[in-house]
């Protein structure tokens, strides 16, 4: 018999299967060659080393933001500020990559470290507002996203822009600042190693330290945690600092690993995607890896489908929408959970 503790795993798998099934039905209705289109969507991302590399490349920033958001969600903080922090930290890393002269080992470390620290400090603002005055973290984080984007775009346009380039991009980064590639034939960079180490560290922090326990208890019931002697205000500020540090590192790594100039003239969207990754991962740091790879895989599949068939890549939006709808629906498969509870109760009678 399926054990109750695995219910959420099966529930998430059911959500994914239902989402894909709906997408396949729509493809069958609109495509002149539905079988070939579905084949492209499912298997073309694995057809070459370069395309497999594209999947992992896209998953790296999703892992960073997914991990950042999952820590906040675990503390019951519905904060979506990773979007703006990802952007502004990328700007900070770009400034140091352009204007700082260092050797090839220290240069990216300093640039990524600076972006991470800036991300932590900026993320602490809505955290402090929440802890001190119980300000709604969703509202303040979304507000700060617009502020950080405006500041970053100003710096790009008036201080970093290369007038000789034919687009709105920064001056070129110093070669010493760019992250090394780790797999020939792809653009995979050392950011993959960084994020995997960070995920393992976050898992240890959350489930094997006193601070992680306080984080989880504050998320489960802040009042109870406070009555138990936990300083919940400090916990809220701490988790915002950590989440901002991770998101800031993600923005810095993405800029230095994938580009030789800063070229984001709009928010890249990875912060909001991080919320979807966190939901799929059920706020478990280790599960973020699989969730990010899945989301990256279907996006690369949708892009290839748009280029090689007659179905547009916007199809992926339908899958994402259904996933969000079903994951967030507490009643979805609740009857199954209740049945499992009854069975386990009878076994212990």
TrEMBL record:
> From which domain of life does this come?
Bacteria
Cellular component aspect of the GO annotation: plasma membrane
Keywords tagged on the record: Cell membrane, Membrane, Sugar transport, Transmembrane, Transmembrane helix, Transport
What are the TM regions of this chain, as residue ranges? 12-32, 52-73, 85-102, 108-129, 141-160, 188-207, 235-256, 315-333
Q: How would you describe this protein's topology in the membrane?
A: Multi-pass membrane protein
Q: Tell me where in or outside the cell this protein is found.
A: Cell membrane
Q: Does the keyword Lipid biosynthesis apply?
A: no
Q: Spell out the Pfam families in the cross-references.
A: BPD_transp_2 (PF02653)
Q: Which PANTHER family match?
A: ABC TRANSPORTER, PERMEASE PROTEIN, GUANOSINE ABC TRANSPORTER PERMEASE PROTEIN NUPP
Which protein are we looking at?
ABC transporter permease
Q: Which organism is it from?
A: Paenibacillus barcinonensis
């Amino acid at each position: 018999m399926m054990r109750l503790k695995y219910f959420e795993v099966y529930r998430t798998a059911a959500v994914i299967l239902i989402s894909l099934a709906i997408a396949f039905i729509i493809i069958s209705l609109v495509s002149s060659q539905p079988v070939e289109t579905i084949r492209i969507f499912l298997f073309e991302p694995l057809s070459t080393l370069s395309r497999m590399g594209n999947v992992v490349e896209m998953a790296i920033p999703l892992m960073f933001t997914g991990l950042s958001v999952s820590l906040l969600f675990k503390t019951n903080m519905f904060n979506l500020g990773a979007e703006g922090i990802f952007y502004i930290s990328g700007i900070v890393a770009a400034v140091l990559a352009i204007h700082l002269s260092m050797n090839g080992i220290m240069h990216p470390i300093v640039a990524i470290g600076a972006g991470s620290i800036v991300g932590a400090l900026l993320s602490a603002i809505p955290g402090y507002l929440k802890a001190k005055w119980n300000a709604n973290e969703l509202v303040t984080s979304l507000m700060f996203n617009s502020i950080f984007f405006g500041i970053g775009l100003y710096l790009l346009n008036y201080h970093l822009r290369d007038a000789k380039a034919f687009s709105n991009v920064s001056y070129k980064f110093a070669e010493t600042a760019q992250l090394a590639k780790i797999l020939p034939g792809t653009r995979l960079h050392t950011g993959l190693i960084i994020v995997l180490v960070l995920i393992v560290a976050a898992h240890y922090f959350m489930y094997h330290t006193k601070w992680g326990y306080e984080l989880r208890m504050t998320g489960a019931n802040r009042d109870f945690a406070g009555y138990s002697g936990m300083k919940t205000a400090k916990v809220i500020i701490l988790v915002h600092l950590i989440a901002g540090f991770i998101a800031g590192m993600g923005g810095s790594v993405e800029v230095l690993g994938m580009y030789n100039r800063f070229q984001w003239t709009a928010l890249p969207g990875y912060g909001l995607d991080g919320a979807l990754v966190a939901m799929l991962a059920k706020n478990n740091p280790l599960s973020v890896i699989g969730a990010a790879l899945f989301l990256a895989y279907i996006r690369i599949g949708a892009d290839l489908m748009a280029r090689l068939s007659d179905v547009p890549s916007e199809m992926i939006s339908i899958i994402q929408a259904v996933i969000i709808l079903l994951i967030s629906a507490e009643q979805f498969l609740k009857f199954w959970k209740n049945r499992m509870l009854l069975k386990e109760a009878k076994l212990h009678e």
